[in-house]
Amino acid sequence: MRWLVSKRTFDLPGIDELNKDQKAVIRLKESGQFLIKGGPGTGKSVVALLRVRKFHNEGNYLFLTFNHVLNSSTKQIFGIDIKSDTAQSWFYKLQFDLAPGDAVNDFETKKMPHKRDANGKEIQHSPDYDQVAKRFESYSAEDLRSLPSKDTHFIIDEGQDLPEGFYEALQVLGFENFFVVADQNQQITEENSSIDELTDVLALEQEDVIELKENYRNSSAIAKFAQLFYTDKATPKPEIPNRPSLDTPTLYVYQLLNSCVEMIHREAARDTSKLIGLIVATETKRESYTKLLTKSVIGNADIIISSYSNQTKQNVNIDFSKGGVVVLCDKSVKGVEFDVVFIVLDGLKVINNDTDAIKKRLYVMASRAKEKLFLLRSASIPNEIEGILPADENIMIRDNI
Amino acid sequence: MATVTKIAWFIPTNTENLQMMLAQGLITDSNGFAGTYYNDVLSEYPGFIPLFKNEVPLTALNMAISEASDLTCCIIKINLSYVIDGYGVHTRTDIDNALEVPFKETNKVFISSLNNKKSDEVDFESMLIQAPLPLSCIEEVIFQYKSDLDEFKTSSSNVGNVSIAILKCKVDKNLFEPKSSDAAMFDSRFCSPEHNTIEYSKPYSFGGLVALSFYFSKNGEESTKLFNSIAQFEEESSSLEYKWIYEYFFSSEDNNKFQKWNIILDTLNHSKKRDDSEYKNTIVEFLDSTVETQFIAEFLTDYHRSKVIKSDADIIEKFIMEYDEEPKKFKIQLFLFMFFYKDNLEKLIEFNHASFREEDYVLIGMLFGMKNGFIGLPKWLVEYEHLHLYLSTIMANYAHLQAKTGLHFKAPPKPLLLNEMLSPKKVDFISWLSKSLNLNECFESVMPNKEFTCVKGKSTYAGIVMPEFRIIKDKYFKTISTIKLDDTSYNKICKEYKGK
User: Fold this and answer.
1) A53, A199, A374, B485: which has the highest count of C-beta atoms within 10 A?
2) How far is B481 from chain A (nearest CA, A)?
3) Which candidate from B16, B158, B272 shows the least CB-CB separation from A12?
4) How far apart are CA B362 and CA B259, in angstroms?
5) Cβ(B242)–Cβ(B228) below 8 Å
6) Closest residue to A247, CB basis, from B277, B311, B352
7) Is the pLDDT of residue B55 over 70?
8) Helix, strand, or coil (residue A221)
9) CA distance A196 to A182
10) A263 CB near a chain B CB, below 8 Å?
11) Is B490 in contact with B384 (CB distance < 8 Å)?
12) Residue A69 scores a pLDDT above 90
């Protein structure tokens, strides 16, 4: 048997696959500020990437994502060399470059001002946007000569994970074209913006906010399962067709970890062009699963195992344009989609009785899956997540391996 | 003296609807749209397509952009010479004189009679033709501004299944500024005529099916025969599975041999969403409903849930061995497995198996094509030279044949079939093809049966003697079936064959 391994690329949607809301987004005028809101799988990223295509030839755009993994996967899958970055990395660099002075001698005065905690200590990775905006206001035209053109179109994915201050600071610099896609229920950062805050900060009229409702990514069974963990009251739940499905997510309770590894390998070998996400809760689990999967893959060289940790500060070395198994912590998976997802429940804990927080995490993890969703849990380790998993076999099947 | 021009027939619409027509492969009334539809004249008379003579009423132009202020109006000019049989219905007399001109008892118009008619030879301003029309009837598309045309081209390139390669487009502002009064589009006394209802799902499925059988016809003689049979609506094949598919599309009898399996074809016929695996669920439910097929349902469910430990290669090999032992066995298990194994059309196209026969590829391809429908075909396949219009006409003729409307359309040029290009006399072409696709071992050269002498170890013939090429069928099939022929390669082959 011979497979012609196809590259995973961003497939342009068929015209019949776009609904009127998405088509209205595609027809939006080039300049101005727009907010596209919707749940996971409603096609927000698709319309954002189609917006990128619109400006790509002119080059007067910047596509910003919240996390490194999404930025990396977008770059690889899109097929053309798009101008993209993670929002924070880009903003840190912009701020540093604009600040007057020499990079070495004036490092302290040029660096990003951060918020401070109750003890007056700087909070890392938490820019003080008010102070940054004041700095920006104080700059002369000469200081701003290295600034990207004012007519740059900012296309921002997962815009809810950036605070209002981020947008305000850019507006201070004179930027006016923002196309933001957001889902309030997928906020995973401490500093974020609600849909109302985004509407205010971008000064949007009603016609500038378009809501995408239909779930295109997940099979109905997966969407139904993910819906159980939907906590946000501000945006309506995604519309889900009410019908039974062969794709009902399955919780496999395993006796031996090896049987999970074999199942993941089997799924990967079945179609080497498929991207399989193994999502875990902790760094330790990520490392151990990556090692286990890599070690036992010997003899099946077609399967690519890769992983990334946002704690290492390294470049994302995952090739999303090829299939294989990608092991990631749940904090790194936002915006990324996989054909098949395995969620390891071991290590996932409810902290301070905050079940909403764990539900949000499960919502994000589950809604990454396009076709199949499996949950894995050790038979020998007690798991506090069990309590929030559905008992209804129509929503989640329980099986042992 | 004023010159009387030839009649032009127009359909006003918007660019969103035009793109949908190109993607679905047919000009339809609003009921035939395979995706989103924006209000225009195509919803005025269900089952019919309104055509306006020489100019489009302002009401009709406004209607085309009534649903959203940012829609773009465009006008399709129709070439009726492609309609070789059937009637239309004229809808009004000149609106200014409507009260003075008696309403005709019969509004039937033999469409062929309108060919080459001049404007003053036809006393009505609009007419209805029963939908659908093939895309070959589009003479050109007219835009009001160049910016509208440019935006149409850009937006078409931003979707995966809108090919505009067949279109001739132009800008003519005047056509969007009608001269005559147009309080109403049609005479108010005109009632909606009866029509034979088209069930669009089947023509669209049939278009996808024929397209895939065309693609796999590259594999050899048997594949080519199967394509020619289905494209000509003929039942000429001994294959059980071909008969099953053929009868589903062409037989009205309920008691055919494969009746019980028609639920599978019905499911594929009605499942047009590419990423939706719901059809698999329906198939499994059907298999689970009878004792003799429950084991297939169980196997496919376990396979889908990753519980089958046996490798895919072993599973397929087992099916093939069974069919080798029992050649007359209906291959439903293998066909169904392929839907669970290769879950989309592109992956099926890229798949090959050493034990597959020519007819396996074509027949499985037909089922996948049927499931996707014409609209779900990859753009590169639709852009094979002449294929878009050819398939569109096949779908339109099939639709009207099923609905017994009496309309029939002239076939546009048939796309060239690779196997039919391999004529033994086409020495230069075959030599080129063999080099381009690395097929050298699939051919042998045969020298004519003439006298020759051996000169310095070389066979020497008197005069000019050309060899003939012969295909080594088995080797050719094994090689060509592993080659994915995209539009660039196919169109290049056609060009070379035609000697351009």
Assistant:
1) A374
2) 11
3) B158
4) 21
5) no
6) B277
7) yes
8) helix
9) 11
10) yes
11) yes
12) no
Token representation of residue B428: 């230069």
d(CA A398, CA A379): 12
Enter the tokens of residue A83: 């101008």
| Most confident stretch, A7-11, A49-53, A143-147, A306-310 | A49-53
Q: What angle do CA B229, B232, B235 make, to 5 degrees?
A: 45
| CA neighbor of A249 nearest in space, from A64, A68, A40, A396 | A396
- Subunit contact A246:B272, Cβ cutoff 8 A: no
Q: Among A382, A375, A381, A383, which residue's Cα sits nearest to residue A400?
A: A375
Residue A161: the pLDDT is 87
Is some CB atom of chain B closer than 8 A to the CB atom of A240?
A: no
CA–CA dist B144, B72 (Å, integer): 9
A135 touches chain B (CB under 8 A): no
What is the rounded CA–CA span in Å between residue A339 and residue A77? 14
In single-letter form, the type of residue at position B394 comes to: I
> Phi/psi of residue A160, each to 5°?
-70, -15
ipTM for the complex? 0.88
The more confident residue out of A188 and B377 is B377
Bridge partners (DSSP) listed for residue A279: A328, A343
CA–CA distances in Å: residue B124 to residues A248, B99, B131, B190: 59, 14, 20, 13
Q: For residue A148, what are its two tokens?
A: 């990207």
Residue carrying structure tokens 């070495």: A104
Is the bond leading into B132 cis (omega within 30 degrees of zero)?
yes
Strands B138-143 and B73-78: antiparallel
Q: Among A145-149, A216-220, A258-262, which stretch is predicted with the lowest mean pLDDT?
A: A216-220
Q: Name the helix (H) or strand (E) containing B303.
A: helix B294-304
In Å, what is the CA distance from B488 to each residue of A41, B241, B247, B380?
33, 32, 35, 8
Nearest to A6 among B154, B277, B346 (CB): B346
The first and second tokens of residue A311, run together, are: 């704690």
Query: Which residues of A, range 360-399, sit inside 8 Å of B by Cβ?
Result: 370-372, 374
Helix axes A220-227, A355-366, angle to 10 degrees: 170
**Distance of residue A221 Cα from the nearest chain B Cα, in angstroms:** 10
Average pLDDT over residues B273-288: 86
Nearest-CA neighbor of B477 among B309, B382, B354, B297? B354
| Rounded Cα gap, residues B28 and B203, in angstroms | 12
Residues A37 and A42: their CA atoms lie apart, in Å, by 9
Q: Please indicate whether, in this complex, the C-beta atoms of B351 and A3 are within 8 angstroms of each other.
A: yes
Give the helix/strand (H/E) hosting A116: strand A114-116
φ, ψ at A200 (rounded to 5°): -70, -50
Two tokens, residue B391: 């398939």
Residue B463 exposed, middle or buried by CB count within 10 Å (0-12, 13-18, 19+): exposed
Chain A residues touching B319 at Cβ < 8 A: none
Reported for A73-76, long-range contacts at CB under 8 A and 24+ positions apart, including other chains, are A73/A316, A73/A318, A73/A320, A73/A336, A74/A45, A74/A49, A74/A157, A76/A319, A76/A320, A76/A321
A247–B376 CB contact, under 8 Å: no
Q: Is the pLDDT of residue A318 over 90?
A: no
Strands of the sheet containing A338-344, edge to edge, are A305-307, A324-329, A275-280, A338-344, A369-378, A250-254, A397-400
Q: Which of A4, A15, A53 to mutate to test the interface with B (most CBs of B within 10 A)?
A: A15
Q: What does the alpha-carbon distance between residue A271 and residue B326 come to, in Å, rounded to a whole number?
A: 30
Angle at B462 (CA atoms; ends B460, B467), nearest 5 degrees: 65
Quickly tell me which residue has 């999404």 as its tokens: A70
pLDDT score at B500: 56
Distance CA B122, CA B100 (A): 17
The stretch A281-309 carries a mean pLDDT of 84
